[in-house]
Design brief:
54% helix; mainly alpha; 0% strand
């Protein structure tokens, strides 16, 4: 039987950290706002928020069934 070669624990940890960092950078790169698409002035945000509040219906939960 061939003797299997073990990799040092430090190297294994370093590889795992590098892979996790690469995945994190990839997802950050994919989800970052581009050319200010997500950037909104305070007045515009307030106007959109108030418009949303006006257009939404109040939440009326259904009445609980009466146990007998």
């Amino acid at each position: 039987m061939r003797k299997t070669r073990e990799i040092p624990a430090g190297l294994a940890i370093a590889i795992i950290v590098i892979v996790l960092a690469a995945v994190g950078v990839f997802f950050w790169w994919q989800t970052r706002p581009t050319d200010g698409a997500m950037r909104v002035s305070d007045e515009e945000f307030r106007r959109r928020y108030e418009q949303m509040l006006r257009s939404s219906q109040p939440y009326n939960p259904p009445s609980a069934p009466q146990g007998r």
